[in-house]
């Protein structure tokens, strides 16, 4: 499904790649992977778990969640790479009626994503337990990450609870500009960042991501958005930790080179986007990607 995009890791150079496994269309075969979506990607960069339960009025039990996650994990060959599971991102554009969240005047700025834990502690703990158990049953290599994290304190609290369940790699999404500004501090708490450019653009430009008249502001090549991505990528480089992009921008063949030029280490996208993005990157050196990023961020734009 679109919600289980492949993750493409960016090697040292974007194209003219020293490691053919990252640019050859037959790389998957060479690595013994089956053809199809698994042949050309490295794992799953964003498993949107809330999509399993959209519209539900009754909460999924622990056992139901274990079964649902294990079913997905079973479809992913272990050799395909790790699976990054995002904990429930409820609210605004992704309603989960079973949570019975209170009506809010500004739901996009309210209790959504990780913030649900403030109102309903237990939902996150049960989910983390279920993901851990499903990973164990399926023998899957699973990381977890939280959506809508705003502060290093939130990242630390999430990481503590995930690590207590044995997850070796714990990350958070950067979707709130405050988190990008404090990326270095957040990276002291977690193992990786995944930049959600859909929401990061919405919150950086104060422009509703569902508003058809504001598409220009939400353009992922906007210099201010790229500057926030760059902050995260630099923080990752300094910390020696991966920083990916999992918003729609990563699957855009014109934007992906900019993200690579800014220093992101992986791109997560819908499988259908992989061939075009791979082609775009295979034709460019890392320095050319950097040059494109510099041009895109020209203050005159
Ligand atoms: C994002 O905000 O960029 C993201 C990947 O999360 P979603 O689109 O599910 O909000
Ligand atoms: Mg988001």
UniProtKB/TrEMBL annotation:
What superkingdom does the record give? Answer: Bacteria
Q: Where is the PEP-utilising enzyme C-terminal domain?
A: 41-283
Similarity comment text for this entry: Belongs to the PEP-utilizing enzyme family.
Q: What is this protein called?
A: Phosphoenolpyruvate-protein phosphotransferase
| Naturally occurring in which organism (per UniProt) | Nonomuraea pusilla
Residue numbers of the full-length protein present here: 396 to 696 of 696
């Amino acid at each position: 499904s679109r919600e289980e995009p492949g993750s493409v890791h960016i090697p040292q150079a974007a194209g003219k790649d020293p490691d053919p496994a990252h640019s050859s269309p037959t790389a998957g075969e060479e690595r013994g992977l089956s053809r199809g979506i698994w042949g050309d990607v490295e794992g799953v960069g964003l498993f949107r778990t809330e999509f399993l339960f959209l519209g539900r009025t009754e909460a999924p039990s622990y056992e139901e969640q274990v079964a649902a996650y294990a079913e997905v994990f079973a479809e992913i060959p272990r050799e395909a790479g790790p699976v990054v599971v995002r904990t429930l991102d409820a609210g605004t554009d992704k309603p989960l009626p079973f949570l019975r969240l209170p009506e809010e005047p500004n739901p996009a700025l309210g209790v959504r994503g990780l913030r649900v834990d403030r109102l309903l502690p237990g939902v996150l703990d049960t989910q983390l337990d279920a993901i851990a158990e499903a990973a164990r049953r399926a023998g899957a290599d699973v990381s977890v990450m939280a959506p809508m994290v705003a502060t290093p304190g939130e990242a630390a609290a999430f990481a503590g609870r995930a690590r207590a369940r044995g997850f070796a790699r714990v990350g958070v999404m950067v979707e709130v500009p405050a988190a990008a500004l404090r990326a270095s501090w957040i990276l002291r708490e977690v193992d990786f960042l995944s930049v959600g450019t859909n929401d990061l653009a919405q919150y950086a430009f104060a422009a509703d991501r569902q508003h058809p008249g504001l598409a220009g502001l939400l353009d992922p090549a906007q210099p201010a958005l790229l500057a926030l991505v760059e902050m995260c990528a630099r923080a990752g480089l300094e910390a020696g930790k991966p920083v990916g992009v999992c918003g729609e921008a990563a699957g855009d063949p014109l934007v992906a080179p900019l993200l690579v030029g800014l220093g992101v280490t992986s791109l997560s996208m819908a499988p259908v986007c992989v061939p075009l993005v791979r082609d775009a990157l295979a034709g460019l050196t890392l320095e050319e990607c950097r040059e494109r990023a510099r041009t895109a961020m020209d203050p005159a734009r």
